[in-house]
């Protein structure tokens, strides 16, 4: 079976020319088929404001009651006056990821083409939604996300602990997802093309607080194009359900798992290239040098001084191995997906609908 990344790579030049000729001229938010998905858990004090601020060009709003103890679904149905609102109730709490995926499924079922995920705590400025969906509407990206770190002025309202934590998580996410061109991976203000969302829903994406980062990992496996959009965050009286101390360890393990799976899949299963060789020989050189040095330290006689030859035998493989690993990282940085896959996926969908039935 032909892989999606290979199909997208082969088809991209034709799609790029088509987009440049007509995509930028015919875009319209009113006919874009944008649906908003709002996971709802203990947000009854803010959700009505989120619904009221949703732009008029949005076709529908899916509010997902994630087994909320405050009865978010009933509250929305009783108080929201916007006819675009649809409430989805989950019998068991599935976390922000599970609620978002359930909202995606409902929006796709109702004909949504671009799906925007917004938190229900009114932290996100919905006035930036047009900027968020534009890269997808123009055919330049499959997934767009907010980035709160593009301006110092955007960070003044952010608590210092969040600035530090997001910076650390961003570097870990670059390693584990392969998207070296993005920052602020935990930002929950996102937009995705529905055809790409359909593929993501078939994968085992984390349902809890690791959702946004794990989603990036799976998008990377699909070779989807991700774009950052500068959007400042707002903080007021909302209460976060996230406890930093409780997620540091699990997040680190999940990043390590995704990094190992990504490197293995990207450089040894789906492809084998110069970076694959650099990884193998680089890792071998570093481990050989460290092993040789450790063996000498353990077996030497007390007071014995290492000769220049022994030092070079240990240091040279480590130096060469480190250089090879840096070259492999440089290759990985330049290997970020750059050709969107959703135009191809939409073309396949259209051809399948037009195919005569036997």
Automatic annotation (TrEMBL):
Transmembrane segments: 279-298, 305-326
Residue ranges of every copy of the Glycosyltransferase 2-like domain listed in the record: 36-193
One Pfam family linked to the record: Glycos_transf_2
Keywords assigned: Membrane, Transferase, Transmembrane, Transmembrane helix
Keyword Transmembrane belongs to the record: yes
GO molecular function, one term: transferase activity
Keyword Transmembrane in record: yes
Disordered, as annotated region: 1-23
PANTHER family hit by this protein: RFBJ PROTEIN (PTHR48090:SF7), UNDECAPRENYL-PHOSPHATE 4-DEOXY-4-FORMAMIDO-L-ARABINOSE TRANSFERASE-RELATED (PTHR48090)
Name the UniProt record assigns to this protein: Glycosyltransferase family 2 protein
Source species taxonomy: Bacteria, Pseudomonadati, Pseudomonadota, Alphaproteobacteria, Caulobacterales
């Amino acid at each position: 079976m032909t892989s999606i990344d290979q199909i997208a790579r082969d088809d991209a030049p034709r799609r790029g020319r088509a987009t440049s000729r007509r995509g930028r001229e015919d875009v319209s938010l009113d006919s874009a088929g944008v649906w908003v998905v709002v996971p709802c858990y203990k947000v009854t004090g803010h959700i009505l404001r989120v619904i009221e601020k949703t732009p008029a060009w949005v076709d529908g709003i899916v509010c997902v009651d994630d087994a909320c103890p405050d009865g978010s679904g009933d509250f929305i149905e009783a108080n929201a006056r916007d006819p675009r609102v649809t409430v989805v109730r989950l019998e068991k709490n599935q976390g922000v990821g599970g609620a978002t995926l359930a909202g995606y499924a409902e929006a796709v079922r109702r004909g949504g083409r671009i799906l925007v995920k917004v938190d229900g705590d009114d932290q996100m400025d919905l006035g930036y939604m047009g900027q968020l969906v534009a890269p997808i509407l123009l055919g330049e990206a499959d997934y767009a996300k907010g980035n709160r770190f593009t301006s110092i002025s955007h960070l003044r309202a952010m608590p210092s602990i969040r600035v530090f934590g997001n910076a650390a998580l961003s570097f870990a996410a670059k390693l584990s997802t392969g998207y070296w061109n993005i920052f602020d991976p935990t930002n929950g203000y996102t937009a995705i093309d529905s055809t790409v969302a359909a593929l993501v829903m078939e994968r085992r994406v984390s349902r809890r607080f690791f959702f946004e980062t794990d989603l990036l990992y799976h998008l990377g496996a699909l070779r989807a194009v991700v774009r950052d959009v500068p959007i400042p965050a707002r903080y007021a009286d909302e209460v976060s359900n996230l406890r930093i101390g409780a997620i540091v360890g699990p997040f680190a393990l999940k990043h390590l798992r995704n990094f190992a799976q990504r490197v293995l899949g990207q450089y040894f299963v789906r492809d084998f290239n110069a970076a694959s060789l650099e990884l193998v020989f680089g890792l071998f050189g570093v481990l050989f040098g460290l092993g040789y040095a450790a063996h000498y330290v353990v077996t030497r006689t007390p007071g014995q001084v290492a000769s220049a030859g022994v030092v070079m035998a240990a240091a040279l493989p480590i130096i060469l191995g480190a250089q090879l690993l840096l070259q492999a990282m440089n290759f990985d940085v330049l290997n970020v997906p750059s050709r969107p896959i959703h135009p191809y996926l939409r073309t396949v969908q259209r051809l399948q609908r037009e195919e005569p039935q036997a």
